[in-house]
Design goal:
The structure is a single chain. The protein folds into two domains: 110 residues, no CATH class; 241 residues, no CATH class. It is elongated, with a radius of gyration of 28 Å. It is 48% helix and 11% strand. It is of the alpha/beta class. Helix 4 crosses helix 5 and helix 8 packs across helix 9.
């Protein structure tokens, strides 16, 4: 039997009853801000040390896990934290809390607060969705900055960083990217070409240290190595050492501060080609940069402003490279020694950059090539902020070897006649 039909009268009464119902809204209690993040992080992570892991009774088990990772990349996340403890905590975490803070985040608490002040407005006004930790408390700006700095400083996976802070992988991803966007916008004043008065100071310091008159800085380049999906691989991104990489070119001053950077170009390019594709080259070529006071040397020789670079760069009127070591005279060997000492400023700057922000020194797993330049830029900004604030890096941070370990020095045979003359004049001035 079919169910009895409801009368239209009852339906109307039912609708009226539904309309007359009111919703009782219970106000949500505001979630507490996670302001004690450092205390929790310090207690949780200060006991981890490379020595305790290295001399634990399970090293063989650890390496067994590591080989499983090599065989099957899908198991990477399971053992990622153990592996990175072994690599990144090669020395014992400092017992002093202030030094421990710098050990984990590369900056002092004072510099950390300054960085927070730069990005606070952006992180508060446009927070990513779901920014709560496992205990259900909202993430403070300070904790968001700490998460991003730890991700950049350690190069650990998002899972490992999240575990250290009690947040999920997606939160680490969102927080880090929002921090990168904010700092890229708010800290650009920390990476700019010097004005004339500042440049005179740089030239004076470089001459006092290395004897090179009118020198404005040193140039070098480094590879940021990555893996790419098969569909994105190409010869352009494959560098001379058969790695997929992105190039970063930088010019530094006497304090190893970056004055100009260029990135985003594929690692398959030579450093000389990268230079010629840069805005810096175009500005110098049109005499809009390195166009300051000309220095008159003894004997009336005039030297324009210039930077120094290695044999991988062309010899130009504003870019001085060393003489090739083929039976050089004593005076030319002396010039080469001074030139090399100054050029090493750029080499050391890159070693410090990649040592401080290890995300640049690790093999990046399928990064978004459109976003990677922003990550690189922010690491350079942080490098400069540390210098500008008078902060000092933890002694274990800098890379022990070359920043481009495994890469052979490139050679460029291009010689501009004006560059040859400039180099000869500088070499003569240094020996008279």
């Amino acid at each position: 039997m079919a169910p009895p039909k409801k009368s239209k009268k009852k339906k109307k009464e039912s609708r009226k009853l539904n309309k007359s119902k009111t919703m009782s809204v219970v106000p949500l209690e505001p979630k507490a801000i996670d302001s004690d993040w450092w205390d929790s992080f310090w207690v949780k992570n200060s006991s981890i040390s490379g020595s305790s892991l290295l001399f634990s009774p399970f090293p063989s088990l650890f390496f067994l896990f590591f080989f499983i990772v090599i065989i099957n990349r899908r198991k990477w996340l399971i053992v990622d934290f153990l592996f990175l403890c072994y690599v990144n905590f090669g020395s014992t975490v400092p017992t002093d809390e202030a030094e421990g803070f710098k050990y984990f985040f590369r900056v002092s608490k004072q510099t950390f607060e300054y960085i927070c002040s730069l990005v606070r407005e952006d992180l508060v006004s446009r927070p990513p969705s779901g920014l709560i930790n496992i205990e259900g408390r909202l993430l403070s700006v300070e904790k968001q900055v700490a998460i991003a700095l730890r991700r950049l400083a350690s190069g650990e996976s998002q899972v490992s960083v999240g575990a250290a802070f009690g947040v999920g992988q997606s939160t680490v991803s969102q927080v880090t990217w929002r921090f990168i966007e904010a700092l890229e916008e708010r800290a650009r004043h920390h990476l700019k070409w010097p004005d004339s008065s500042r440049m005179e100071e740089i030239k004076s310091k470089l001459e006092a240290s290395f004897g090179l008159p009118n020198c404005c800085g040193a140039i070098d380049a480094t590879h940021i190595i990555m893996t790419l999906p098969t569909v994105q691989t190409s010869d352009d991104w494959c560098d001379p050492e058969n790695n997929y990489s992105m190039l970063l070119q930088g010019i530094v001053d006497h304090e190893m501060r970056f004055l100009d950077i260029v990135t985003g170009w594929p690692g398959g390019m030579t450093v000389s080609r990268l230079l010629k594709c840069s805005g810096f080259f175009k500005l110098c070529d049109s005499e809009e940069r390195l166009n300051g006071n000309v220095r008159t040397l003894s004997g009336g020789m005039k030297i324009r402003e210039y930077i120094v670079g290695g044999l991988g760069y062309p010899l130009l009127s504003w870019l001085i490279t060393p003489y090739e070591n083929n039976g050089l005279s004593t005076s030319l060997s002396a010039f080469n020694a001074m030139h090399e000492a100054a050029r090493l400023l750029a080499v050391r700057a890159f070693s410090q950059l990649k040592g401080s922000w290890r995300i640049l020194n690790k093999v990046m797993w399928r990064p978004d090539k459109r976003k990677l330049p922003s990550i690189i830029l922010v690491c350079c900004l942080l490098h400069n902020i540390i210098i500008d604030t008078g902060d000092k890096l933890h002694p274990d941070v800098a890379l022990s070897g070359h920043h481009d370990s495994g890469y052979r020095e490139q050679s460029c045979k291009q010689v501009d006649p004006m560059g040859r003359t400039a180099r000869e004049n500088i070499a003569k001035a240094l020996t008279t």
